[in-house]
Structures are given as C-alpha cells and as structure tokens.
C-alpha cells in the first residue's frame, strides 16, 4: 500500500495511491485506514512530505564503503544523530542553500516511518512498530561538518531533508535497491541488504535510547558516493518498490 499526504482545496489530506488516483483517507493513518470515498488525480497532485515527524534519527556510516571513503573504520554499533522536523521538505521542492555553507552534498537513503509508540523493544518485534518505508535525501553542509563534527549544524538547516513521495507498507527492505542520480548521472547505488545494521536492529537500538512515536523517522544511512551540489542541480533518490524523490538545489 502506498500512502501519501497532499494539499487539496479543502486542506491537507492523507490518501492511498491506486492506479492513477489518490483515494482519500479519513482521520489519522496511524489509527487505521478509513476511506472517505473521495479521490483525486495522481497527476498534478500537490504532494507533501508523507509524514510530519516529531523527530528524525539519522544513522551515520551504516555502509562499510561510506565509512571507508571518509577514512573511518566501520562502526561496531549504530552511530546516531538528530535532524529537526523543520528540515523536512516535500517531493519536488527546492532545497534552500544556507548562507553559512559553501559545500552542500546529497545523501540518498532509505527511511523508516514508525507506526506506533516503541520503547525498549526487542529487534525481533521491530516490524510490528513500523508503518512503512520511504525515500530520503539527508542533505549535508559538508564544510560545516568536517572541522569539528558539527552534526546538528551541518544536518539541521531548513529544507535539508526531502522525504517521500510516499510511504509504502509491507516491503522487505533487504530486497530493495537504492539509486541516487545527480542531473541524471548515477552517483550512488546500493542494496539495502548491505547495511551494517539492518532495520530491525536500528529500530530496537533507537527505542532503547528514546521513545519512538508514530510518524517519527529513522534514516538508515547513505552508501558511498555522496558528492557536492551546485545551485540548480537536480537530485533523484529512487528505491524500487517505493518510487523516486526528486528535488532541486536552491
């Protein structure tokens, strides 16, 4: 099932994609799906980020090759950081260039959307707490990160987390392939099964640190190949079974 959030003349609505239409969902998608009977054309729909997370938990160096390209050893446990909710932006939106940075890079990732409260859960039950998966671009001001490991600064600018276009339920993440392109040229590719720490382990680990709430997002890490962008560049994050997230650098 593909869940979206969109802006309509009547306000912001959730919906389910079926064929070329979006079928409106009544109420909160985290409390069960109730269809209203209304639908909207998918083409031309004003899609918003599919969820509004209360928090976004990032995982650094979750692919061995990415750690190696940064001159680091693969971590022995997940390396966590936070991005603020204000960083989240919609599919198709322009990513603002922050005046404090001269080097902004893309990082394509698979994102996990939490479906119900999770605290101190066993990883073998993690799937019970997941709503679905979506695409993400963990935009990073690299020149602000490297001098002093300023993760909140380099990751936290407004618009630095494109998310979407939809949340898809019931996928096996190990079968998913990530492809990230810059102006049509492939720059990152990975199979999600190559992550050092899989989704069940990440959900269980994070839930032992902080309570995860419906709509919260875990970014599962980026593979090797992230690179600087220039104003006007288009980045696409494609994950088979989910779709393509496209955004332009401001």
Automatic annotation (TrEMBL):
InterPro entries: Fumarylacetoacetase-like_C, Fumarylacetoacetase_C_sf, Rv2993c-like_N. It comes from Harryflintia acetispora. This is 2-keto-4-pentenoate hydratase/2-oxohepta-3-ene-1,7-dioic acid hydratase in catechol pathway. GO terms for biological process: carboxylic acid metabolic process. Belongs to the FAH family. It comes from the Bacteria. GO terms for molecular function: acetylpyruvate hydrolase activity; isomerase activity; metal ion binding. The keyword DNA repair does not apply. Pfam families: FAA_hydrolase, Rv2993c-like_N. Residues 55-248 form the Fumarylacetoacetase-like C-terminal domain. Residues 1-50 form the Rv2993c-like N-terminal domain. The keyword Metal-binding applies. Keywords: Metal-binding.
